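Work through what follows:
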Amino acid sequence: MKRSGIAILLSLVLLFSLTSMAGAAIDGQQGRDNPDPGRERKIVIFNAAVGEADQDKIINGAGGQKIKHLPLINATAVKLNPSAEKALKNQPGVLRIDPDIVVFAQVKPVAPAPPKQDVPWGVDRIDADKVWEDNKGSGVKVAVIDTGIDLDHPDLAANIKGGVNTINPARSADDDNGHGTHVAGIIAGLNNTVGVVGVAPEASLYAVKVLSKSGSGLLSDVIEGLQWCVDNGIQVANMSLGTSTDVKSFHDAIAVASNHMVLVAAAGNSGPGDNTVEYPAKYEGVIAVSATSSNDVITTWSSRGPQVELAAPGAAIYSTYKGGKYATLSGTSMASPHVAGTVALIISSGVTDIGAIRAELQSTADNLGNSGWDYLYGYGLVDAEEAASGI
């Protein structure tokens, strides 16, 4: 890919921006959070010496109700009334109590799907197709931490190798929203002459459903999803979600998970203000991705700031959608999977060290703004061909 030198901005989004809604209720599957207005969901973090059995005893003794254990950060999601929370704070072994924030998606209407196209403009723009003769990301394990994936989609099913529903483990990780399926198609849509083709068309997809039908999610479900990724040897995890709230439990979970896999996240759709990158993209262990348009200009709505590491196509991206369909969506949600797919290609080329992968992405990115790094594009537009082939 030839290097160009542009900067500025563009328009339109669909990032699942996890944003705190104090006291808000979430829909259907997640309505389990607070039927009793006297109790609130919290995350109780214990010191390392307190195991799960002892955590249960402490919680029960204080009058709390356990929801799920979160071993990634040695914590438990619970329901507490004020007196139970006060009692727990005074218990030996309890480090702190964090809010289990309610989060939701900032969703824009789905635009009508354009005619069939084999290689969407974003995949073409980062030159992923120039790698496929020798490398299609075969077998690399990529998790889509999102609303799930359409498990029967004809352009994805052959690449879907597993998954989990942390909202309701008794249900499948099938996508009832569409966002996760769209993200999955950008990463690994099949190269099968129909619909679309993804950046790494032979990568193994894992659906990690942490967001509900409306795009709502709870932090504890996201943390459990990260734990599942660690336990199942995931190599790349895409998080097209975010929150403006910095919760230490989230930071701690990311810190652990980033030692096991490459984490890629949407920077957010909170532009054009400065320093608007959202969490988890804002955390050090995550590759934060801003969004560009087809003319290599950052979108007006894309978040920007000192944490941006790379830019990628994010405006009017055609990809797979729930119900076996296709749709055109925009957002840093769409930019992030272009980078996640590129990581899969890099790993498939033989580079597996997390630090080396990030260094390769940075050194091969196409500069778009000021010379070197800048807060709009980071190190530049991701270049799959150069990053995965050492050109």
